[in-house]
Amino acid sequence: MNVLTDFFRLLREMLDFPLLTIGEFKLTLWSFLYLFIFTVLLFYLTALFRRWLLNRLLVKTNMTLAARQTFGSLLRYFVVSVGLLIIIQTAGIDLTTLNVLAGAIGLGVGFGLQNIANNFISGIIILFERPIKIGDRIEVGDVEGDVVHIGARSTTIVTNDNIAMVVPNSKFISEDVINWSYTDSNVRFKIPISVAYGSDVRLVEKLLLEVARENPDVLEDRAPAVRLLKFGDNGLHFELRAWTKTLTHTKGVLISSLNFAILEKFNQYNIEIPYPQRDVHIRSGHLEMQARKDTPTT
Fold first, then answer.
1. Which of 29, 126, 243, 274 can pair with 196 through a Cys bridge, CB separation 3.0 to 4.6 Å?
2. Radius of gyration of the chain (CA)
3. Domain, as residue range, for 205
4. Beta-strand (E) ranges in the chain?
């Protein structure tokens, strides 16, 4: 036992030479290794603790998945902050002597690390205000998908193609975000339809409502509606408005199935879907026609 104690004392003496000196503060190799090892352990253990908290303890409560994720992340940030302070103090480093180093770090954050700091603060804001949460269907920029993870720096979104998009948290604060399930999962989709002039508009309205009611993914308690929007250049522009709860995350499936059914109904009742038309008027005058040399004459 004495031999082991002497060995560790000798090892510390060998590693106890300064790497950095700022005023009275000295960072030795021993202190650096101490900080590195215990900081890695702190992050690893807090990650295990958060996973156990979410999957074992909080899952037994009535909290939603998003609320559990938010609580677990905030608790981990708090434990990491307190743990880092304890590790620094037990390493023999006096925080009051690090004013110059803190100023240098602050300068670095202001210039080189401002994006990282911005994303981290944005992540904290997202966890507190919860404009988005785990499981939400959102659109931000050109990215559309389901939120599966909200981290300290970025948020992971999985698209319908099963592609994970890692989006910096600052985008959710500085840009417009469309949240399809912010209040509830009921969403209304609008399907534009055009019919030719001369069509029976009341029959068109009836057929569109039939198509919506016959679709199993259209809600019955929120009745679909048809609107005649305008008289276009080539036809009458209608809009079918239908509510759904099951296909919120795959709106293309609902729109496609409704369009197929609309086309079949219109073909059944001989309702014409117009195509772009233009009338060409030739003003009266003298037109000269010349035959090309390579054109045979009759």
1. 274
2. 34
3. 187-268
4. 18-22, 25-28, 137-140, 143-150, 154-158, 164-168, 177-179, 187-195, 225-231, 236-244
The CA-atom distances, in angstroms, between 259 and each of 148, 164, 170, 262 are 31, 30, 38, 5
Per-residue model confidence as pLDDT tens digits over 113-126? 677 778 888 888 88
Final residue belonging to a domain, choices 162, 179, 196: 179
Residues 6+ apart with CB under 8 A from 213: 220, 224
CA end-to-end distance (rounded Å), the chain: 121
Number of domains in the chain: 3
| CA–CA dist 74, 169 (Å, integer) | 16
Torsion of CA 260, 264, 265, 267, to 10 degrees: 140
Query: Does one domain contain both 175 and 191?
Result: no
- This prediction has a pTM of 0.61
Angle, nearest 10°, between helix axes 29-52 and 2-15?
110
What is the 3-state composition of the chain as percent helix, strand, coil, each rounded to the nearest 5? 50, 20, 30
Tell me if residue 72 falls in helix, strand or coil: helix
CATH code at 163? 2.30.30.60
Structure tokens at 1: 């036992």
**Residue 73: burial class (beta carbons within 10 Å; 0-12, 13-18, 19+):** buried
Q: What is the pLDDT of residues 21-45, one digit of tens each?
A: 555 556 677 777 788 888 899 889 9
Q: What distance in Å separates the CA atoms of residue 244 and residue 252, rounded to the nearest whole number?
A: 12
What are the C-alpha distances in Å from 210 to residues 223, 240, 260? Answer: 11, 11, 13
Residues counted in the chain: 298
Q: Domain of 193: which CATH number?
A: 3.30.70.100
Q: Is the pLDDT of residue 296 over 70?
A: no
